[in-house]
Amino acid sequence: MAEARAFASPDQPRPQPPPLAKPDAARKVGEGLRERVGETIDDTGKLLAAIAGFGIFFFGAGYFVEWQRFKRGGLPPEEILPLISKGQVAAAGVRELVVSIFFGVLVLGILGWASVRLARWATGRGGKRSRLRRALASVYTVEGAVPSLVLGGLIFLFVPLGWAGVIVTVVLTLLLFYSLRLLNAYLRALGGDGAATFPLWRLLVAAGLAAVVLSGARQREFPETRAHVYVTLTSQRLIEGSYIGSDSNSVLVRINNPARQPQLLVLNRSEIAGMRLERGSYIFPTASSVFGDLFGVQFACIPPECRAGDARVGISSLF
Q: Which ranges in the chain are annotated with CATH 2.30.30?
C-alpha cells in the first residue's frame, strides 16, 4: 500500500514507458533494420555468407521436419532420409519455415501494436490512476514481460497437452522476451552517447530457432498427410500405399498393414508401368488441449496450424 500511495503522489515520478512504446520507436527500428540490411547487401562477402547461411538453415530445417514426419509415421528416419532427394528435403524445410515465419511476423505485429498502446495508457498522465494502471505500469518496467507472458498464455491454452506443447510454449515465450529486450536496448542506446548497432543477426537467430521449434513440433503432433499412391508394375501387379518420395532411379512407397509394422518399398523405375497420386487422408490420433478440454471439443494448435477433429486446418493449406 505504501508503494501504491507513493506512486499516486504527484511528487513522485511516474514510470516511463519502455523504449518500444515511444512515439518514434517504429521509425527508429525501421531505419536501423534498413541500415544493417544495406550494409550486408553492399558487402559481397557478407551477402554470399548470408545466402549460404540461409541455404544451410532451410536445408537443415527440412531434414528436421522430415525426420519428425518419418518418426511419427513409424518408419526409421535415419535409414530413409539418405534415400530422399535433396530437393524434396529442402522444399519441406522452406514450406514449413515460411508458415512459421509468416505466423511469427503476424504475431509480433499484433502483440507489438497492442502492447505499445497498453504501455502508453498505463504510464500516461491522463485519466484516473487506478490499481490496474499502477500494476501495469510496474510490470512494464520489466521490458518485454507483458507481451511475452500474453503470448505464452495464449499458446499454452491451445497447444496439445504433452511435452511438445510445453516446449513450444516455453521456447516461444523466452525467445519473444529476448527479442523485445534486444530492441529496447537498441532504442535506449540510440538515445545515449554510445554507438547503436541494430541487432539484426541475433534477431534472425531467435526467429530461426522459433520457426524450427514450431515446425518440428507440428510435424510430430499432426504432420502433413502424404499423397496416396497407386503403382502399377510392369508385371501388372498393383501396389497401394503412401507416396514418400522419388528420384531418377527409384520410387519410395509406404505400405500400411494393420497386422504388421509399416513397410517401405523401394521400387526401381524400370519396374514401374504407371503411377497415380491422390490426396491422402489423415491417419493420426486427435490431440487434446486446455481449450478443447474446457469446451468439450477436439481442437489443438501448434501455431499457426490447428487440428479440429480429424482435419488439419491452417495457412499451410494455401501452399
A: 228-278
What is the CB-side half-sphere exposure of residue 271 using CA atoms within 13 A?
A: 14
> pLDDT for 276-296, tens place per residue?
988 876 666 667 899 988 988
pLDDT digits (tens, 9 = 90+) for 37-86: 888 777 777 778 878 888 888 888 888 888 888 887 778 888 888 888 88
- Closest to 4 (Cα-Cα) out of 133, 117, 125: 133
Would the pTM of this model clear 0.70, i.e. be above it? yes
In this structure, which amino acid lies at residue 225? T
Cα separation of 224 and 312, whole Å? Answer: 8
Q: Give the helix/strand (H/E) hosting 28.
A: helix 25-42
- Give the number of other Cβ atoms within 10 Å of residue 76's Cβ: 11
Contacts of 151 (CB under 8 A, 6+ apart): 107, 111, 172, 173, 176
| C-alpha cell recorded at residue 53 | 547461411
**CA dist., res. 250 & res. 268, Å (int):** 5
- CA-based R_g, the chain, Å: 25
CA 6, 11, 16, 17 torsion-angle sign: positive
Class for domain 228-278, per CATH?
mainly beta
